[in-house]
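Customer escalation, tier 2.

The customer says the design service returned an amino acid string that "doesn't look like it belongs to this structure." They asked us to rerun it and document both sides in this ticket. The original structure tokens are below, unchanged.
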């Protein structure tokens, strides 16, 4: 435990460590909170213990939150987090198919290890340079166009500036529907208009 704490200090310049009540590290979990506090006094970092969050009488675990996100259960994930689930990334270069259809989207590039909700359409808020915009966000493989690989595409309502290479944070409010494959572009456009209208109604609700 002492070697690992030293490594954290050396590599990350650790000045503080926040742990849960049952945290322990090192060989045979020898590095409990009491030992870490003593190490911190000697090595120059603080240790802060935080209580577990409780939901429905049960302790909330990070695994439960990740599972809720992965299944698209945004409401459950947000309840366990104590805030709305969000993810951030820079806007990358997409295929510009949305622009051709009249729905220009911001294609968000996120780190590969980031938790991403299940494929589907979501009502979200998009934050750009401190400003908040309503956004209908699609996560998936674009099956109508036989797309390859998952994308995160947000259509910002009442926004017409270029977002390329700019950081955007998406705050997920509600899942609208599953990702679907449509027979033609017209059917897709009809559904996209419905998605945008539902997004507006959800996000404008008091």
């Amino acid at each position: 435990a002492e070697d690992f704490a030293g490594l954290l200090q050396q590599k990350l310049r650790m000045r503080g460590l926040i742990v849960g009540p049952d945290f322990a590290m090192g060989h045979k979990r020898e590095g409990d909170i009491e030992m870490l506090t003593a190490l911190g006094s000697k090595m120059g970092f603080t240790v802060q213990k935080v209580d577990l969050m409780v939901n429905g009488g049960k302790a909330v675990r990070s695994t439960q939150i990740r599972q809720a996100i992965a299944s698209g259960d945004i409401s459950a994930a947000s309840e366990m987090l104590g805030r709305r689930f969000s993810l951030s990334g820079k806007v990358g270069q997409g295929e510009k198919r949305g622009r051709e259809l009249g729905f220009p989207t911001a294609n968000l590039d996120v780190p590969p290890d980031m938790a991403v909700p299940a494929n589907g359409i979501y009502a979200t808020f998009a934050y750009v340079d401190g400003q908040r915009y309503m956004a209908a966000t699609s996560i998936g493989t674009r099956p109508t166009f036989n797309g390859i690989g998952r994308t995160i595409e947000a259509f910002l309502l009442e926004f017409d500036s270029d977002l390329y290479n700019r950081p955007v944070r998406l705050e997920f409010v509600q899942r609208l529907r599953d990702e679907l494959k449509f027979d033609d572009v017209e059917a897709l456009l009809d559904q996209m208009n419905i998605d945008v209208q539902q997004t507006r109604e959800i996000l404008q609700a008091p």
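Tier 2 assessment: The sequence is consistent with the input. The chain has a mean pLDDT of 89. DSSP finds six helices and ten strands in the chain. Sent an explanation to the customer and offered a walkthrough call.
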